[in-house]
Amino acid sequence: MDQNSQQKSLHIGLVGAGIGGLAAAIAIRLAGAEVTVLEAASELGEIGAGIQMTPNVSRLLIKWGIADIIGDNLVEVEEFNLRQQDGTKVGYTKMVPDMKKDLGHPYGTTLLSLNLQLMRDRWWVVHRAHLHSGLVEVAQSLGVKLLINSRVNSLDYSRKGPVTVTTEARNRHVFDLLIGSDGVNSVVRRTLFPDVRPTPPSTNSAYRAIVPYSRILKDPIAKTLIEKPTMEVWLSEKAYIITYPISGCKDLNLVLSHHTDNLVYNVEDVAVEDLRKQFEGYDLKIKRVIDMIPETQRWPLLVTALESWSSPEKNVVLMGDAAHSMVNHMAQGAATAMEDGAFIGRCIAEVVQNRLTLTQAVEIYEKERMPKARAKQHISFLNGAIWHLPAGPKQEARDGAMKEEMSGKKLSRSPNLYSDPRMLEQVYGYDAEQHADEAVRTFLQRREGVIDT
Ligand SMILES: Cc1cc2nc3c(=O)[nH]c(=O)nc-3n(C[C@H](O)[C@H](O)[C@H](O)COP(=O)(O)OP(=O)(O)OC[C@H]3O[C@@H](n4cnc5c(N)ncnc54)[C@H](O)[C@@H]3O)c2cc1C
């Protein structure tokens, strides 16, 4: 215990400085605990690709000062367009909400407050390297210790109390709580749950690619695609393409979802000609951009399903892809990892203030966050099924049901999950910190007998 402040001194260790681990490190440091992050790589960084930062986490980027650091490299998307393979528009979401229109809407109150929130919490797209370096800068300025070349090999967590981890270089670190933020192939998860293996739920995987605007602007047809900062999706049978600008509109990011003959478990190098062949016959605007892709890799889409996220003594806990990797079709993997970090940060703040024990904090985190992550896994899979529909009655029903949105009408349910009111509420309007505060309050009230158990 710290004599001056009566606050509890805690040292929390994180394995992995990815987007999730860094978000958790910031949140936990803000909670008043000492934080060390052990990262295997010899340099801090992220893969060369774009990422969507949806309103449920852009709020964290704003609050933690990361948005200011990333600055113009964050791109705000104005529109989201769903198209058939030939470019015909079939779905539309206005990404910057129009409050006046929503006032007159029958779902008024909820949507109005959600839209007010969405106006504050923006829908951004960004290069992962820019996001990652913003997270690193804020973490370091808060005093988080980031140790590179620190691949964790083993952990000793058998006794109640502190956990000892050993790195490849045989350095030992002792923490009051260890958080496994080490991604889909997590050593922390493999140690806790050796029988669990992340698996692709189908033969679906994704190519990732970036094409510079300077190249696209030279093509009179392709350049019409980048006149406005929009997110575009071309839907086709068992495949889709999504594009959006990154790096202050200097690059166009592409994700090309497709199926293969076999299940994909690892990142694969692919000849760019194979990709081009697979996406022939698309709208000429996007086809021309595809022909400019310099190189690509195929990424697996793995799902991790766990019954628990923690050790029996609650001194080790998982987060992010290590706990709940999901398919990418709602762009929620990293977002959910950041939510985990924000949530656990608020719970640890209560431990620092001596209102909860670490065990209780971990229990609240697991109880509340596991169902949220599971729901995101399901919704992500569902959106993949919607976007991959083959031509026929179901596809026609999907497109028909989204049609009225194109003239500005708000629907009570929509197969376009980017504008479906229930998704706005459950996914984009979700506030992880508020959720944590409410869960802690309920826990404390139950403990004090204020409310029934
Ligand atoms: C095609 C595609 C598109 C996607 N688009 C989006 C999107 O738009 N929005 C979104 O929110 N999500 C998206 N995702 C998902 C997102 O990329 C992941 O969910 C997210 O990166 C997971 O973050 P993480 O911090 O949990 O793990 P990771 O990013 O995997 O980070 C793990 C870190 O741990 C380190 N590490 C690993 N093992 C050890 C060890 N033994 N010791 C020390 N360090 C270790 C690694 O080096 C790494 O730095 C997409 C995924 C795919 C495949």
From TrEMBL:
Keywords linked to the UniProt accession: FAD, Flavoprotein, Membrane, Monooxygenase, Oxidoreductase, Transmembrane, Transmembrane helix
Molecular function via GO: FAD binding; monooxygenase activity
SUPFAM superfamilies according to UniProt: FAD-linked reductases, C-terminal domain, FAD/NAD(P)-binding domain
Domain FAD-binding, chain residue ranges per copy: 13-375
InterPro entries for this protein: FAD-bd, FAD-dep_Monooxygenase_BioMet, FAD/NAD-bd_sf
Signal peptide feature range: none
Name of the protein in its database record: FAD-dependent monooxygenase OpS4
Region described as Disordered: 395-415
Highest rank taxon of the organism: Eukaryota
Basic and acidic residues biased stretches: 395-408
Keyword Metal-binding: no
TM stretches of this protein: 12-32
Keyword check for Transmembrane helix: yes
Family listed: Belongs to the paxM FAD-dependent monooxygenase family.
PANTHER family, per database record: HYDROXYLASE, PUTATIVE-RELATED, MONOOXYGENASE
Designated gene of the protein: OpS4_1
